[in-house]
Amino acid sequence: MLRRGFLAVRNRLTPYDLRESAATLALRALELPELAHARTVAAYVSVGSEPGTLALLDALHARGVRVLLPVLMADNDLDWGAYAGEGSLERVRHGGRMALLEPTGERLGPGAVQEADAVLLPGLAVDRRGMRLGRGGGSYDRVLARLERAGADPALVVLLYDAEVVEHVPAEPHDRPVHAVVTPSGVRRFG
Q1: 144-176 residue pLDDT tens
Q2: How far is Cα 143 from Cα 162, in angstroms, rounded to an integer?
Q3: How many CB atoms lie within 10 A of CB 83?
Q4: Which of 61, 136, 151, 186 is most buried, by CB atoms within 10 Å?
Q5: According to the model, what pLDDT value does residue 177 have?
Q6: What count of Cα atoms within 13 Å lies in the side-chain half-sphere of residue 117?
Q7: What pTM was estimated for this model as a whole?
Q8: Of 149, 145, 181, 183, nearest to 191 (Cα)?
């Protein structure tokens, strides 16, 4: 129910709203020291009314940052591929779900995320503790668990709209807080 509410608000955004917020989010995110000094960033390609990421991906790629993008596997885990510009993406439909843009190049394996200095996580909301509400598929829970098992400690950043920073979201014992949220109006840090 909570997820549906956030998605309903997103679905009312206009194409203009989406373009403007994507440009502003890219500028705000690029100011983060965690991204400014990163050599490798694991990110994702936004779809539908998600906060836009393509401008940010292009800016990071232009800086010479190695950008890793997820490839959804049949078991909902994530493999990774390198981003080589917008022409290196293909639209892939997974079952009855929405089509995702995924990298076309070599598959680097689920463990490739461990090389990231920062991980940009998709989400629907984050609360004052830094707890992230995802879409419920569990893909990024697996990524975060993999990072923890490997002893990797990248900066965890979520990109959201301003109204998606809320007082409280439900959390499970395995959930991990993010370090920062970037919204069109600014950056908020946690912990």
Answers
A1: 999 999 999 999 999 999 999 999 999 888 788
A2: 25
A3: 23
A4: 61
A5: 92
A6: 13
A7: 0.93
A8: 181
Alpha-carbon distance 28 to 159, whole Å? 10
CB atoms within 10 A of CB 147: 20
Q: Of 59, 48, 68, which Cα lies nearest the Cα of 26?
A: 59
**What's the 3-state SS for the chain?**
CHHHHHHHHHHCCCHHHHHHHHHHHHHHHHCCHHHHCCCEEECCCCCCCCCCCHHHHHHHHHCCCEEEEEEECCCCCEEEEECCCHHHEEEEECCCCCEEEEECCCCCCHHHHHHCCEEEECCCEEECCCCEECCCCCHHHHHHHHHHHHCCCCEEEEECCHHHEECCCCCCCCCCCCCEEEECCEEEECC
Which pLDDT does position 1 carry in this prediction?
74
Low-confidence stretches of the chain (pLDDT < 70) are 96-97
How many residues does the structure list for the chain?
Answer: 191
189 touches 31 (CB < 8 A): no
- Side-chain-side CA neighbours of residue 87 (13 Å): 0
State the angle between helix axes of 54-62 and 15-30 in degrees (0 to 180), rounded to the nearest 10.
Answer: 30
Q: Quote the CA–CA distance of 70 and 101 in Å, as a whole number.
A: 9
Query: What is the pLDDT at residue 49?
Result: 93
